[in-house]
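Priority: medium. Attachment 1 of 2:
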């Protein structure tokens, strides 16, 4: 176990090393980098992290990250509220927004159905989605879930409930330009954009 001349330095390295993908050497390098920066810049950096954890909230409509009760996407009058894109988590919202081709709104499930991991229907934001469909004038639900068994199971469950309760609503799915087994956040923007533009009827994704 490596020893340091400063407990403060050691603690900073250990905390930075807890971040995903950050090994010990990288943690040391980042800590020493911060140590060399002007105090004011480091203060801004640490305050932004503190605000991220303590002040950020989630949109009461779509469950996306928000600075207030309603996120900027839901409150944007230029977004097409008749189309809701259903995604696994917030990272997928960021990935789709980076394509600049989708102009609708979102609904973040915060996961997918996965019995192995103990994640069931009640653990996801599915009920709030169905409640939105009762209140809002929605023409299309766009399933942009992972091309995995869990993602397909979740999409199938949601689509069946929508078509039973809201037969007027069209249910589409991301085109299979996204490889089976891939997470959206790992898909390049061009492929993801094409898959959104050429989305297909949900049932045809299983044929």
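Attachment 2 of 2:
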């Amino acid at each position: 176990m490596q020893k340091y001349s400063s407990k403060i330095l050691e603690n900073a390295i250990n905390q930075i090393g807890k971040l995903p993908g950050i090994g010990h050497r990288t943690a040391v390098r980042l800590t020493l980098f911060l140590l060399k920066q002007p105090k004011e810049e480091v203060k801004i950096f640490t305050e932004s992290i503190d605000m991220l954890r303590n002040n950020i909230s989630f949109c009461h409509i779509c469950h996306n990250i928000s600075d207030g009760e309603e996120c900027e996407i839901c409150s944007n009058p230029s977004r097409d509220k008749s189309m809701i894109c259903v995604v696994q988590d917030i990272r997928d919202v960021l990935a789709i927004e980076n394509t600049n081709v989708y102009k609708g709104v979102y609904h973040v499930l915060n996961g997918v159905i996965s019995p192995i991991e103990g994640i069931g229907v009640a653990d996801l934001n599915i009920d709030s989605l169905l409640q939105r469909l009762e209140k809002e004038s929605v023409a299309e639900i766009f399933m942009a879930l992972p091309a995995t068994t869990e993602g397909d199971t979740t999409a199938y469950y949601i689509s069946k409930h929508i078509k039973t309760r809201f037969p007027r609503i069209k249910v589409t799915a991301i085109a299979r330009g996204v490889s089976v087994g891939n997470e959206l956040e790992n898909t390049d923007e061009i492929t993801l954009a094409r898959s959104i533009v050429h989305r297909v009827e949900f049932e045809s994704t299983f044929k």
